[in-house]
Amino acid sequence: MKWITKGINVIKSIGYNILIPAPKDETLNKLDPEVEYIVEIKKKIKRRSLNANAYAWVLCEKIARELSKHAYISKNDVYKRVLIECGTFTYLPIKNDAIERFIEIWQGHGLGWHAEDAGPAKTEGYTIVRAYHGSSVYTVDEMRRLIDALVDECNQLNIPIENDDYINSLVTEWGEYEQKEKTG
To answer: N or C: less crowded end of the chain, CB within 10 Å?
Structure first.
């Protein structure tokens, strides 16, 4: 059983007793004083409604709305442009006859997964492809660079955004999530 409450009192006698306001629940009547229970008390924290990747999309939407005052541009167009301008990519040597298929498959991973011909490779019969990764797989440093680029563009366009502490907390949270994913 789990609930959120206020008004917890600590009573010091022989050791400590804790008086916890609880909801009316028949389960509480069935607690056996002879049985050991695990009790955990944690301070309630306000959960963020956005993570860093979602916030990047919010910024893309704000930029698109501002730029669309002159000519239509979608948030997807903003996202793709910023990923190419500041995003993470890998150079890959691909056989000349497989370039089109590789790019098709790579870009099938999602909107941010862009690939382009970067010129001939040193090895005969191969071309270098610049393969961009979507932001959903970014490291904390890569995400910080993306968010910084979007924030910079918002500032240039005089678009109001959240304060730096909030933005930094999203990127930090992204790093913690990334670490959990790596450690399983």
So the answer is: C
Strands (E), 40-174: 89-95, 115-120, 126-132
- What DSSP character marks residue 46? P
Q: How far is CA 105 from CA 46, 108, 109, 119, 182, in A?
A: 40, 5, 7, 19, 25
C-alpha–C-alpha distance, residues 56 and 152, integer Å: 12
What does the pLDDT read at residue 177? 56
Tell me the pLDDT tens digit for each residue of 159-183: 988 777 777 777 777 666 555 555 5
How confident is the model over 58-103, as pLDDT tens digits? 999 999 999 999 899 999 999 999 999 998 899 999 999 999 999 9
Ranges of beta strands (E only) in 14-132 are 15-19, 89-95, 115-120, 126-132
Query: How far, in Å, are 13, 69, 113, 133, 161 from residue 72 at the CA level?
Result: 70, 7, 23, 26, 21
With contact defined as beta carbons under 8 Å apart, do 77 and 63 qualify?
no
Taken as a whole, the chain contains a residue count of 184
Cβ-proximal residues to 128 (8 Å cutoff; 6+ apart), any chain:
91, 92, 93, 94, 117, 118, 119, 120, 121
Find out whether 78 and 157 touch, Cβ atoms under 8 Å: no
